[in-house]
Amino acid sequence: MAILERVYNVPLRNGYMKAPMYRRTKKAVNTLRTFVAKNMKVSEKKVKLGKYVNLEMWKHGIKNPPHHIKVNVKKDDEGNVFAELVGAPVEKTPAVTSKKATGVEEAKAALAGEGNEIKDAEIVEETKFDDSITPVGYQTESINKAYISKKPSALESAAGFGEEKAETKAPKSSAPKKAKKAEKSE
């Protein structure tokens, strides 16, 4: 599949130093893409960056990308280029079959004994949960309903906080500030 495979240590610092601090990692990603496109002799649209390259670039945030990054670059027959971090785990893609079976056909095949079956399987451990016990960290139903409604007053009343706040809060007077200062000085 891959007609060309190379390993590059890409210098990113010269590219991202030309951008402001709040755009540095974005500029570093574009620098990597242009470097790979130039060296593999394809357009930038045909360059795909892998998941682990992206994670490595953004590891320290937008303001502090790495100075260099080592990538493994593969070019296929159609001219598509894929760049992935050196040492990244390789994800195997399952073989694609031309015929897609529907759920009904799969069920019929399983009942008839055809296809993939698990033979001599045994249950190692079975755990049953009791619904009457509330798991730790969960709130009562009234609080959950208040979160769903997104009304702060409903949340306070469900948790029992509304009554205390009403008692302690003094009403605001509508008198101007100058009048209050005059009353305090007398």
Report on this structure.
- This protein has helices spanning 13-16, 24-40, 51-57, 103-112, 141-149, 152-159, 162-168, 177-185, and strands spanning 2-11, 47-49, 68-76, 81-85.
- With 186 residues, the protein is α+β, with helices and mostly antiparallel strands.
- Among the domains are: 2-85, Ribosomal Protein L31e, Chain: W, CATH 3.10.440; 137-169, no CATH class.
- It starts with a strand and ends with a helix.
- 12% of the residues are buried.
- The model has no long low-confidence stretch (mean pLDDT 75).
Helices and strands, in order, run as EHHEHEEHHHHH
- The fraction of residues in strands falls at 5-15%
Structural class: alpha+beta
Q: Tell me the name of the CATH class of the domain at 2-85.
A: Alpha Beta
**Anisotropy-based shape:** flat
The helix content, as a percent range, equals: 25-40%
What is the averaged pLDDT score?
Answer: 75
Q: Which ranges are low-confidence, i.e. pLDDT below 50, for 5 or more consecutive residues?
A: none
CATH homologous superfamily descriptor of the domain at 2-85:
Ribosomal protein L31
- What's the CATH topology label of the domain at 2-85? Ribosomal Protein L31e, Chain: W
Task: Tell me the span between the first and last alpha carbons.
Answer: 92 Å
